[in-house]
Amino acid sequence: MEHVRIARLRTKVSLVVCLVDAFTSDHPHGANISVVLEGSLSKPIVTSKGTYIFTNLQAGAYGLRVNAQHYFEERRPIEVGLENTLVHVTLSPRPSYPFKEKDTLLRVSVGNEEGQPYAKALLHASVQTEDEAKARLAQDRAEPGADELVVGSVTGVISPGDRYLIRGRGAEAGEELCRIAEVLEHRRRLKLDRPLAGSYTRGALLLPAMQTQSDEQGEAVVAFSNCRARSFNVKLDIVHGGRSLSKEVNVAEGGTTAAGRLQF
User: Out of the domains of life, which is the source (predicted)?
Assistant: First the structure.
């Protein structure tokens, strides 16, 4: 009599990577997308919803690298534990991204005083006009160390990976940049990726903030969605190789505003 051994192979989900377009808050454009987990030979399973699933990974540290045609490369360290890990990766559009004619854009070129372009200069753009606030704090007070916010008066969609400038009300109120780690209740309760440094009271504003970089020619683009004002002010903070520059620009809704070539 022949004995047959039946082996059951179990597949364990270890890491789920969700890619998000920083401009549309939707799936990235294009089909040429590569998601690689450095330190592992595992290849991801791609779902119909555009998520990337890695299975049967050993617990430990890895490096995640994402490349896509219309976006800047994203790299980040990943810690995989015994339970499955969910990671949201926000992709910043390159200047060559297929924007539409009426999209609200701020384009800028950065370089040194000799005219040489700065590649991979880091750009932070934060909206300063209160009418463009994405939400307001709906709890009585958020104290230093808090990593959750309850918000109201939300316009548009708030997604994991979004950045905001939280600004208190009043002449001496503080402000700081924060990033959304998770939306715990639909458009109501937000978990931050790091605790607050300051204290904020009910009515504090969450103003849109973006982070991107310059390409090989020193060109960069910042795209704004769901704009309500016909024009609004944006503060640009640019850093490259130990040098920095801050500049405020008025952006017109529904078109491209050119900040020109900034040299520093």
Answer: Bacteria
- Confidence at 3, pLDDT banded by 50, 70, 90: low
Domain housing 55: 13-91
pTM for the whole structure: 0.90
Query: Residue 195: what residue type?
Result: P
Contacts of residue 112, defined as CB under 8 A and 6 or more positions apart, other chains included, come to 118, 263, 264
Query: In this structure, what token pair is assigned to residue 111?
Result: 């370089």
Give whole-number Cα distances, 239 to 39, 97, 110, 215, 247, in Å.
Answer: 31, 23, 10, 14, 12
Q: Which residue has the tokens 């949201």?
A: 88
CATH number, residue 59: 2.60.40.2070
Report the CATH number that the domain containing residue 118 is assigned in CATH. 2.60.40.10
Burial of 151 (0-12, 13-18, 19+ CB in 10 A): buried
